[in-house]
From TrEMBL:
<dbReference type="Pfam" id="PF01370">
    <property type="entry name" value="Epimerase"/>
</dbReference>
<dbReference type="InterPro" id="IPR036291">
    <property type="entry name" value="NAD(P)-bd_dom_sf"/>
</dbReference>
<dbReference type="InterPro" id="IPR001509">
    <property type="entry name" value="Epimerase_deHydtase"/>
</dbReference>
<feature type="domain" description="NAD-dependent epimerase/dehydratase">
    <location>
        <begin position="9"/>
        <end position="201"/>
    </location>
</feature>
<protein>
    <submittedName>
        <fullName>Dehydratase</fullName>
    </submittedName>
</protein>
Length: 306
């Protein structure tokens, strides 16, 4: 079931690489967004709060506060509640801080946000999981998918701290959804590409496609990720669910026949693949949520001659 109502959304991590594109997309759909981050988002349409997701008291507080001075004019005697929460705040990868701190912030932050949101009765939550949960991106040495395409039923068996924190968050979200009956959707977000990165990064991807192996050649345009989040917010009644968040095609110009011969000759191919269909499959969001990409890479970068 889908709904098109305007929502009052608390968005954590809206100033990050993905969030700073997703939040404007949600604002363009008419939603009211309150951004919780350590750094404000520079958009006059958004309300910003500085808060620490690892502090449970701050999460309860920010979910029960006025967004701006204008809300005082309603004269309702208390702040309006939020209709939805989008939780992106996290240490975004390994190699930024210590492993223990990455795990602490990512898991505790997610627990605190889900705990506060569900206790306030917010029955629509979308959170950022990761492509890394499949255990390929940050493997020590080369790890290959167990089968292709990589869809949501592929095992999540990571061996690194960041991806393990995301698997833990999925289990936490599933527990809250089971207890409450609320809709809590996890997005296994692929390698996020901002608009300027097509010119700076993709020529290198074409020259050295092996640099995309750890991502299973996946990418997600940050603006298309905004559409995916909005579709999740409009979709009701699924309880707990997870979705791969990627674009329709691989992030290199090679055909799947070329990629499989070069990188995956011994990997099981479970179904027929289109010539350039993403090996990190977004079939579920296309068929079940209605995702239609607006920003394929070939719209911004010339297709190399072979």
């Amino acid at each position: 079931m889908t709904t098109n109502r305007t929502l009052r959304i608390l968005f954590t991590g809206g100033s990050g690489k993905a969030g700073r594109h997703v939040v404007p997309y949600l604002l363009d759909q008419g939603h009211h967004v309150v951004n919780v981050d350590q750094t404000p988002l520079d958009d006059p349409r958004v309300d910003n709060y500085t808060a620490d997701v690892t502090d449970p008291g701050q999460m309860f507080d920010v979910l029960s506060t006025y967004a701006n001075m204008g809300e005082l004019d309603h004269g309702e005697g208390a702040p309006r509640g939020f209709d939805a929460v989008v939780h992106f705040a996290a240490i975004p990868r390994n190699f930024i801080t210590t492993d223990a701190e990455t795990y602490r912030i990512n898991t505790l932050g997610t627990y605190n946000v889900l705990n506060a949101a569900t206790k306030f009765g917010i029955d629509k939550i979308v959170f950022a999981s990761s492509e890394t949960t499949y255990g390929i991106c940050f493997a020590d040495g080369e790890a290959k998918p167990q089968f292709l395409p990589v869809e949501e039923d592929h095992p999540t068996e990571p061996t690194d701290t960041y991806a393990t924190s995301k698997v833990c968050n999925e289990a936490t979200a599933q527990a809250f959804a089971k207890r409450t009956g609320f809709d809590i959707y996890g997005l296994r977000i692929g390698n996020v590409i901002e608009p300027h990165e097509y010119a700076t990064d993709f020529p290198h991807f074409f020259q050295a496609p092996e640099v995309r192996r750890r991502n299973v050649f996946c990418y997600i345009d940050a603006r298309d990720l905004g559409q995916i989040v909005d579709l999740c917010l409009k979709t009701e009644g699924r309880g707990y669910d997870v979705f791969n968040a990627g674009n329709d095609h691989n992030s290199v110009h090679l055909t799947n026949a070329d990629l499989i011969e070069r990188f995956y000759p011994d990997v099981e191919i479970r179904r027929e693949l289109g010539e350039h269909e993403a090996l990190y499959s977004n079939r579920k969001i296309r068929e079940e949520l209605g995702f239609k990409e607006n920003h394929p890479w070939h719209q911004y970068v010339p297709v190399p001659k072979r």
